[in-house]
Structure formats: C-alpha cells, structure tokens
Amino acid sequence: xxxxxxxxxxxxxxxxxxxxxxxxxxxxxxxxxxxxxxxxxxxxxxxxxxxxxxxxxxxxxxxxxxxxxxxxxxxxxxxxxxxxxxxxxxxxxxxxxxxxxxxxxxxxxxxxxxxxxxxxxxxxxxxxxxxxxxxxxxxxxxxxxxxxxxxxxxxxxxxxxxxxxxxxxxxxxxxxxxxxxxx
Length: 183
Prior knowledge:
- Residues 24-43 are annotated as: Disordered.
- This is DUF3828 domain-containing protein.
- The chain has 5 helices and 4 strands.
- By secondary structure, it is an alpha+beta fold.
- It has a single domain (41-181), classed as Nuclear Transport Factor 2, Chain: A (Roll), CATH 3.10.450.
- A 4-stranded antiparallel sheet has the order 1-2-3-4.
C-alpha cells in the first residue's frame, strides 16, 4: 500500500512538474504586461509649476485674442485650446455655435458629458486669489501620453477641485490635452 501511495505521489509530482514547465514556457513566449508604471518626475514638476503659474501670475490687463491664445498655448495643446474656446462659446452663446455643431466637431476627440459645464476648465469661472496644486498622482500611461490626478485649491477661499489631466510630451516639455473633474 505504501508503494502504491508512493507511486501515485511520484506520478502526481511528475505531472505537476510538466504542467508547470508548460506554463513556464508559455509565459516566456508571451510579452510581459507591465502592471506597475511610474509617472515622470519632470511631468509632475511641470504640472505643479505651470498650473500655479497660469493662475497666480495671470496678467489681467487687456490683451488681444492672439496674445491670450499664445499665453494659453504654453499650457494647452492647440486642439484642446480650440475645444475649450468652442465650449466657452457654446456656454455663453457666442460665435453661433450650437450643441449639434459642437458635438459633431468634438465628440470623437473629447467626452461630451459635461461640455457645457466648467469641467473642461482647470478651475472654472471662480474669482481665484492664489492657486495651489497638490497631491499629484500618476494614473496611467497610454502610448506616450500621461494621465495624472491632482487637486487645485484656491488658498483664500479654500475651494478645492479634484481634476484629472492628460499630458502630451511637447518639445522637451508637456502640454495639457484634456481636463476632467473627478467625482
């Protein structure tokens, strides 16, 4: 009886070993999926410095549309700037843009869910004093783009928003290509 149990144990161990060997060889032939990605420290530094700079050093003297656009394009991609401009026109009834035109133009590139809200703007229409960016967290990398989560706080009123931003590498720097509220 002991010999039969031993024989079954040996057969079991041998069969387990061949199954493990088969699994191991299959794993070696398949590409590895990277489950833990890390963000880019340069991107995180860029987010903090540039979002705070956008608000804290905003020159509210009258400027032409061209001057305003050039200032915004330091922070945003041209495509996202155009999307934000169209969204503002839609929200405030300017430039004859309708929801239908807006959706046709942008629905392939950006979510339409809250296009008429302040969701697409970093800090909305608040009269902010000094902005502080905190708790910047890397979420994921898709191709060469980086998603981050962050908090933007008006230090005077303590009003705080939780945002997600999509960064795109641009000429040894970055640009924001999408902004979303988080719930």
